């Protein structure tokens, strides 16, 4: 499954597809070529806007991304869409991946759409997505949309790998309250009430007021401009251009103030930390000593011979996490 860096940087979509399949591969023999390719790609990365897009299932994420993607391509951008789907590793099902989505966008030579990787844990999936962002950048894509659903940890993961987080919301009451409860409203830089068309217009306005009220109670993060609430219809495209104006103005401002750079540096550092945590845990559970001692420890714990803290200390005593 060899992919050359020349093929990748020439913008060949097939090469990009193959490159992502390579880094997603769980086969031992693919690990080294995948890391070599990523390393070769590094000098060609960093020159895109990385945008997270989230919202509950049915809010219109695919429809919105297709509408925005078509607009961006008409303006000369190259658009990549990656998905982080927390349903896949646990249930084997997929919230984002299995329907036919974004048919118009898929057909565009300047678009690249990649469904969520399905293997491994959610942590593994998000790591693959971080690497996929870099590969898309090396292939010349300058707007990267990372889509996820409002489930579990995935929104935080996506916010931790993007420059701006856009939350789509439903018209009518209720969605804002849920968003506040789950802390998701605080994560968003731009809030968009979708489906503002036909009979929904009044309900969209009501949602906007509710969201604004909700935002009023939240303490805006110090280093963020307060989120704005926009209305759009992804079905008629009305308002989608204004959403992009807001998004791009914010991104330009971030870049000019050098906060884009410092945010990405922080994100990279956090990525390194989480990789260390993952690898240390992996080594711990795969250590021969742990495997032998673990069962013994459980029975000692049951009989009350040791406390949980003592048990952990004993387990760690014989483990060599650094090789
Ligand atoms: P996702 O699950 O968030 O990706 O949502 P989809 O994009 O699949 O949309 C769910 C449903 O809402 C579909 O039937 C869409 O046609 C519909 N939908 C999406 N955007 C709009 C919109 O702006 N207006 C209206 N009226 N319907 C929409």
List its traits.
Rossmann fold, globular, about 325 residues, alpha/beta, Single alpha-helices involved in coiled-coils or other helix-helix interfaces, 14 helices, 7-stranded parallel sheet
- Percent of residues in helical segments? 40-55%
CATH architectural grouping of the largest domain: 3-Layer(aba) Sandwich
Secondary structure tally: strands: 7
Query: Which structural class do the helices and strands define?
Result: alpha/beta
End-to-end distance, in Å? 30 Å
Q: Report the principal-axis shape.
A: globular
Contiguous runs where pLDDT drops below 50 for at least 5 residues: none
Q: Number of DSSP helices?
A: 14
Description:
- The chain has 323 residues and is α/β, with parallel strands linked by helices.
- The chain has two domains: 44 residues, Single alpha-helices involved in coiled-coils or other helix-helix interfaces, CATH 1.20.5; 213 residues, Rossmann fold (3-Layer(aba) Sandwich), CATH 3.40.50.300.
- It is 53% helix and 11% strand.
- The protein is built from 14 helices and seven strands.
- A seven-stranded parallel β-sheet has the order 3-2-4-1-5-6-7, sandwiched between helices.
- Helix 9 runs parallel beside helix 10 and helix 13 packs antiparallel against helix 14.
- The longest helix has 28 residues.
- It is globular.
- The two termini are 30 Å apart.
- The mean pLDDT is 88.
- The structure holds guanosine-5'-diphosphate (GDP).
- The site of guanosine-5'-diphosphate (GDP) has 14 residues, from helix 4.
- Guanosine-5'-diphosphate binds next to helix 4.
């Amino acid at each position: 499954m060899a992919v050359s860096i020349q093929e990748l940087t020439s913008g060949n979509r097939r090469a990009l597809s193959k490159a992502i399949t390579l880094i997603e591969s769980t086969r031992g023999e693919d690990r080294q070529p995948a890391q070599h390719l990523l390393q070769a790609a590094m000098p060609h990365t960093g020159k895109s806007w990385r945008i997270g897009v989230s919202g509950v299932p049915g809010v219109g994420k695919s429809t919105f991304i297709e509408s925005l993607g078509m607009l961006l391509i008409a303006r000369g951008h190259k658009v990549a869409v990656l998905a982080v789907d927390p349903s896949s590793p646990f249930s084997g099902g997929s919230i984002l991946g299995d329907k036919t989505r974004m048919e118009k966008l898929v057909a565009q030579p300047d678009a690249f759409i990649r469904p969520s990787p399905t293997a491994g844990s959610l942590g593994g999936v998000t790591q693959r997505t971080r690497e996929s962002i870099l590969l898309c950048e090396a292939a010349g894509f300058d707007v990267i949309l990372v889509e996820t659903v409002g489930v579990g940890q995935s929104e935080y993961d996506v916010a931790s790998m993007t420059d701006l987080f856009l939350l789509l919301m439903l018209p009518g009451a209720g969605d804002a309250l849920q968003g506040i409860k789950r802390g998701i409203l605080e994560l968003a830089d731009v809030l968009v009430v979708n489906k503002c068309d036909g009979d929904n217009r009044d309900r969209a306005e009501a949602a906007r007021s509710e969201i604004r009220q909700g935002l009023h109670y939240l303490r805006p993060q110090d280093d963020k401009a307060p989120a704005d609430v926009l209305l759009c219809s992804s079905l008629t495209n009305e308002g989608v251009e204004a959403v992009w104006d807001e998004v791009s103005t914010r991104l330009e401002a971030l870049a000019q103030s050098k906060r884009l750079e410092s945010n990405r540096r922080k994100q990279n550092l956090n990525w390194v930390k989480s990789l260390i945590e993952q690898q240390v845990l992996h080594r711990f559970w795969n250590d021969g000593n742990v495997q032998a001692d673990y069962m013994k420890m459980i029975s000692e714990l049951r009989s009350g011979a040791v406390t949980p803290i003592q048990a952990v200390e004993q387990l760690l005593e014989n483990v060599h996490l650094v090789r």
